[in-house]
Automatic annotation (TrEMBL):
Tree of life domain: Bacteria
UniProt keyword annotations, A-Z: Exonuclease, Hydrolase, Nuclease
GO biological process, one term: DNA metabolic process
Protein species of origin: Octadecabacter temperatus
An annotated GO cellular component: cytosol
GO-annotated molecular function: 3'-5' exonuclease activity; nucleic acid binding
Keyword Hydrolase: yes
Name of the protein described by the UniProt record: DNA polymerase III subunit epsilon
Regions annotated as coiled coil: none
InterPro entries assigned to the protein according to its UniProt record, in alphabetical order: Ribonucl_H, RNaseH-like_sf, RNaseH_sf
A Pfam family it matches: RNase_T
Length: 206
């Protein structure tokens, strides 16, 4: 894969890309943050692009959820109505990512992210991607069964157990963490997950 060089001025506060890197990729990890009480009120999408050599590049984009922010949500992820001023709405942002996501296998930590995207697509009447999803919680349970009853397999506990470094509840950071969990699990289990590979014809252009 050709390395994508990006100037520092297009990186956000956690160092994630704000322009899409060159692909294709072995798989893409995806995480979303939401603004309020509805699961489809997405205010941030984060992606972790994993190459065939195991390198991870991360991307993050803010979204105007077109609904009020709940104080609890803003306290959790730090995103507010002021943060998303001028940001695109879900149909615009998701539309720009659609072909890229639809061409790759996706990883999510729990099933919340897929449900949130489905709800947002239903809300706006836009097509949902049909990619194969892998739940990195299930993967972590296979690799580290001893964590059952000892903090579980959430990202916060895996962060402590595996020594991961990331800022929890930022979508780009959580996407990178989910990707890293899968890569570390493959090392523990001694084999790669065969379904985490390009399985569709790539139609997108950069």
């Amino acid at each position: 894969m050709e390395k994508c060089w990006v100037d520092r001025d297009v990186l956000n506060k956690f160092g994630h890309l704000t322009t899409l890197p060159a692909g294709p990729f072995r798989f893409i990890a995806l995480d979303v943050e939401t603004a309020g009480k509805t699961i489809g009120g997405i205010c941030q999408i984060g992606l972790g692009f994993v190459s065939n050599t195991g390198d991870v590049q991360t991307y993050s984009v803010l979204i105007d959820p077109e609904e009020p922010f709940e104080p609890f949500n803003t306290e959790l992820h730090g995103i507010s109505a002021q943060s998303v001023e001028g940001a695109g709405t879900f149909p615009t942002v998701f539309g720009a990512l659609f072909e890229l996501l639809n061409a790759h296998s996706l990883v999510q930590h729990s099933t919340f992210d897929e449900k949130a995207l489905t709800a947002a697509c239903t809300r706006y009447g836009v097509p949902m991607i049909t990619s194969h999803w892998t739940n990195s919680v299930t993967v972590a349970r296979q690799a580290w069964p001893e964590l059952k009853g000892a903090g579980g397999h959430g990202l916060a506990n895996l962060k402590k157990h595996l020594g991961l470094e990331f800022h929890h509840h930022d979508a780009g950071e959580d996407a990178r963490a989910a990707a890293t969990v899968v890569l570390k699990a493959e090392e523990i289990l001694g084999a790669g997950f065969s379904h985490l590979k390009i399985n569709r014809q790539l139609k997108f252009k950069f």
